[in-house]
Specification:
Layout lengths: L13 E4 L9 H15 L4 E6 L9 H13 L9 E2 L4 H14 L2 E4 L3 H13 L24 E4 L6 E6 L3 E6 L7 E3 L7 H11 L4 E5 L3 H14 L5 E5 L2 E2 L15 H6 L4 H10 L12 H7 L10 E2 L2 H14 L2 H14 L7 H14 L6 H7 L1 H4 L8 H4 L4 H14 L6 H14 L4 H13 L7 H8 L1 H19 L2
Parallel strand pairs: 1-2, 2-3, 9-10, 11-12
Antiparallel strand pairs: 4-5, 5-8, 6-7
Helix pairs in contact: 3-5, 5-6, 8-10, 11-12, 12-19, 16-18, 16-20, 18-20, 19-20
The structure holds one RNA strand.
RNA sequence: GGCCCGUUCGUCUAUCGGUUAGGACACCAGGUUUUCAACCUGUAAAGAGGGGUUCGACUCCCCUACGGGCUGCCA
């Protein structure tokens, strides 16, 4: 019934993401947005945003702003203003009436109670529960003066073929579809109508969306056909599952993009991971957004649902953080601090952070870990050692620090010289450097985990380092006094 | 129930009829090492099951099993 037209013919590339504002921005929605963005931006096309808010009961402004924030965080910029589907309801109704005059739709006066009763009976008798409206072929002259919905007059036989660029040729027999409602009795459009009208009016050329819409595509294609509109290229991508292979839900932990932002994952790493989830370009695993834009294509999308793997996300994000330019990383970090309500950096800590970035970024997979690793430069004297690190301050260790500290006053303050000097100190006592590093780390950072002691001394500088070592000695002395 | 889609190491995936089925993450065993991270080396690990088609199937077809989606005056 529908010829295999080449829908990829010359036509400007326009994609869109059309989330419904009924909660947080789901990670799956974010990935769909990313695919659409990559496809359009990689081809000089446009990427649009439409808020599908026709369900007035469930749509909230808060959810809309969460969507905007999520897209912005991921760096997925859209063209023009976000379109409100609800605002276009009159246009949708206009098309519904156009379908009426064209004879491709009809008024149905069946009440919801009648339909529900029919479905219940059909289920009970194990018959098809497809509702066949008795008004489909009724003479308009006999129509009552009563509320009605407008239904699509869908073909009863034949088949509808979805030429899907991910799933392949999908054939659906028309007899398995009923006459869907396109305009509700209150005059508002249903999703099935609105999505087609909007995509057409917005000149969307490629519809890349979750494969939960694959079946819907057949019914939507009937609307395109009824209106004589050019079909978009269909690409129905598999959904994302939780680590256990079940549909991603709250019990898996993070489902909203803002939760990932709060956990400190860098946007570039998220883009990389999400792009690779369900799409591939040979064996390439780690890539920049520029590469993704150049490589992304519908042919690389897999047909099976993919599971979220936090370990891999961690790994990818860690590599992105390590590869980032220090200044850019600092900028991102400050944005993270602001977005999550953490205290901002002071001019002094900002400078220290920048100079320390080289020894911090290799050790962190998230900004949370980065901040944690930077603890030594964020705390002010006196550094209070935590329980685990305090145990390194044994009497012997304190003696060693006390001897060493004055000599640090005129030591050469470079990594190589400090390393030589401190190694000598430890060796002179017949100890491995580890025995000396532990108390040094405690005095400098107050933690058992930190960057290398040399790096901390370099970042802190001579005065601050010496002062911290003296503090540690003082504190121990005070503790040991009765 | 009906219809539609899917199924390669634990996970993400490569392969587009001919490979010892490759890579990455995770794991395990070593190495490096001042902690952590990183890094290096190595081990183990897969075509859901059954039928076809073919000289030859992970790859094409069918059936089954399992998973998912749709079946709303939700989107």
């Amino acid at each position: 019934m529908y010829p295999d037209v080449d829908t990829t013919r010359e036509r400007p590339v326009v994609t869109r993401i059309a989330p419904s504002p009924t909660g947080t921005m789901h990670i799956g929605t974010a990935r769909t947005a990313l695919f659409n963005w990559l496809y359009a931006r990689g081809r000089g096309g446009r990427f649009l945003l439409r808020i599908e808010d026709t369900d007035r009961a469930r749509s909230t402004p808060e959810a809309t702003s969460a969507i905007l924030r999520g897209l912005r965080w991921l760096g997925l910029d859209w063209d023009g203003d976000a379109v409100s589907q609800f605002d276009r309801r009159h246009r949708h109704a206009e098309v519904a009436h156009e379908m009426l005059t064209r004879g491709s739709a009809y008024k149905c006066f069946s009440t919801q109670e009648e339909i529900e009763a029919f479905r219940a009976a059909a289920e009970a008798e194990k018959r098809s529960s497809l509702f066949r409206s008795p008004w489909r072929d009724a003479d308009p002259a006999t129509h009552p003066d009563a509320p009605f919905v407008i239904r699509m007059r869908a073909p009863l036989d034949g088949q509808t073929i979805i030429n899907d660029h991910v799933q392949g040729r999908v054939t659906i027999r028309n007899e398995t579809l009923d006459d869907m409602v396109v305009l509700r009795s209150d005059g508002t459009p249903t999703y099935m109508l609105a999505v087609v009208v909007d995509d057409h009016d917005m000149e969307v050329s490629h519809v890349i969306r979750g494969d939960d819409h694959l079946n819907n595509a057949a019914r939507q294609q009937m609307v395109y056909d009824a209106m004589g509109w050019a079909l978009p290229v269909w690409a129905h991508i598999p959904l994302i599952f939780g680590p256990d292979g079940k549909k991603l839900s709250k019990r898996h932990g993070a489902t909203g993009v803002e939760e990932y932002q709060a956990m400190g994952y860098p946007a570039a790493g998220m883009r990389n991971y999400l792009t690779r989830l369900g799409w591939s370009h040979g064996d390439d695993e780690l890539f920049s957004t520029q590469k993704a834009l150049a490589w992304f294509d519908l042919s690389g999308i897999g047909r099976a649902p993919a599971r979220l793997d936090f370990k891999k996300l961690d790994s990818i994000c860690g590599r992105h953080i390590a590869a980032m330019d220090d200044a850019a990383l600092l900028h991102e970090l400050e944005a993270f601090l602001a977005a999550t309500g953490r205290p901002a950096l002071t001019p002094a800590t900002r400078e220290a952070m920048l100079s320390a970035m080289y020894c911090l970024k290799d050790r962190a997979k998230t900004y949370v870990e980065l901040i944690d690793m930077a603890h030594f430069l964020l705390v002010a004297r006196p550094v209070l050692p935590d329980g685990a690190s305090a145990s390194a301050l044994t009497p012997d260790a304190l003696t060693m620090l006390a001897e060493l500290t004055p000599r640090l006053q005129n030591a050469s303050w470079t990594k190589a010289d400090l390393e030589a000097f401190l190694t000598d100190v430890a060796t002179a006592r017949g100890l491995g450097f580890g025995k000396l590093a532990a108390p040094l780390r405690t005095a400098l950072a107050g933690r058992t985990v930190s960057p290398s002691v040399y790096d901390m001394m370099l970042v802190l500088g001579r005065d601050e380092s010496v002062a911290r070592l003296l503090d540690a000695g003082d504190a121990a002395r005070i503790r040991s006094e009765p």
